[in-house]
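chain below, 540 aa
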Amino acid sequence: MSEKNYQPIFILPEGSSRTVGRDAQRNNIMAAKLVAETVRTTLGPKGMDKMLVDNLGDVIITNDGVTILQEMQIEHPAAKMIVEVAKTQEDEVGDGTTTAVVIAGELLKNAERLLDQEIHPTVIAKGYRIAAEKAISILNKMAETILPTDFDVMKKIAITAMTGKGAESAKEKLAELTVQAVADVIEKENGKTSVDAENIKIEKKVGGSVEDTELIKGVVIDKERVHSGMPKVVNNAKIALIDSAIEIKDTEIDAKIQITDPSQMQAFLDMEEKMLKDMVQKIVASGANVVMCQKGIDDLAQHYIAKKGIYAVRRVKESDMKGLARATGAKVVTNLDDLSANDLGTSGLVEEKKVGDEMMTFVRNCPNAKTVTILVRGATEHVTAEVKRALTDSIGDIIAALKDGKVVGGAGAPEIELAKQIREFSNTLSGREQLAVQAFADSIEIIPRTLAENAGLDPIDVLTEMKSAHDANKKWAGINVFTGKVMDAWAEGVIEPLKIKTQAISSASEVAVMILRIDDVIAAGGAKGPQMPPGGMQEM
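prediction:
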């Protein structure tokens, strides 16, 4: 019988690439591990910073995990999934992004070891899910309760969030400002405490030092008064928020005005002037002495407003208008005809002040302010940007702690305790899932191990010492990266919200399970495909 020559069958378009089985898994795990390695050196008080330079030459210097990953423009599809973990952590808590990414990378690294032992990915995935569920249960039991009046604990949370970031030099003062800002915007509804991070505005201006950062009970607007004849300072301000132009409107349709005689021209101009005067008169009649306008203010109207001794600002951002309404109690008016004294807001002081090389408007001392502003100062643009990121993290941490009412010690203590209890739990299991649960426990230890490595300490010595302390029932035994010794994290004031830990573990385990279950990567023709990460992915 003659041997048949079968024609190969192509089911994918030309240029497509396909990676199958172990190769696909190795490729994806390698990409995820590289992402984790990139941010791992930034973890903890002794973490290093990254300098990110984009194609326009703009520079960002930070050790904020999510900022690094977003700016890196990662292309590998599996690596992008790890970046999503950081984004979720940022959206849910506002901090702990590096922790989540490092745990995800370590879970995949340990899963690879199990894959080499011929353990099926679905078995590992099941073990990881069981372990993650148990871990969250253990953390909830381990956590301590915090009340909205525990300002001392809140301050410690803020200091913990800032340690190791650019704001560390002034962390005491910044932590006090952060706690005060959160305390000012706390609202109680049906016995529940709620804090909206949107009500704490962070403005940054280059100049001065980080120590000059201040909290304003009100709003700072990056605008100056529109006319030099207006007062620079207004005490006991009555503020009108106007969302319409204080100028002559153009007609909705194309219109032609025919003027046949010079007197008609003068009458036309007089009418325009009268209309502007009427607008200003409506503002004066309401009793307002400060006007914040979202649209434009005509030059002639500016003149009349200045003559009445009213302070006016134009083209205010919509977000600032909302902030002003919450801070002063004013109502945003869309039609000037409807403006009345009931629509006005109040503040103790409105003033124009030079900050750096720009003029800004400060609306201060608002009674019952529901919005506050932290004005960040610093020697350079990079410093102020990093301080702003640190403040955002610490505000997110305090809000997360108040929302759940639960906090844990930091310094690697909860991770060691967690790993210990998960190992004990794994002994109650049988079958191959037990190996996956033990691998999960090993993975959690990457956090204290990394803290030790980044501080230049021997991770084996540190972990051994911490484990022996936890065996002696010291659940908050963590690492003091400055002395290299084991300390009581709670007593030393290293405190973090429970949400950071639970969110990081659930997000990291979910993405690790998803990546493990992929055994076939099909990249469309013309796409770059899931090659190994480009040069930009390497350790920086």
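The CA atoms of residues 31 and 91 lie 24 Å apart. The first helix runs from residue 21 to 40.
thats it, cya
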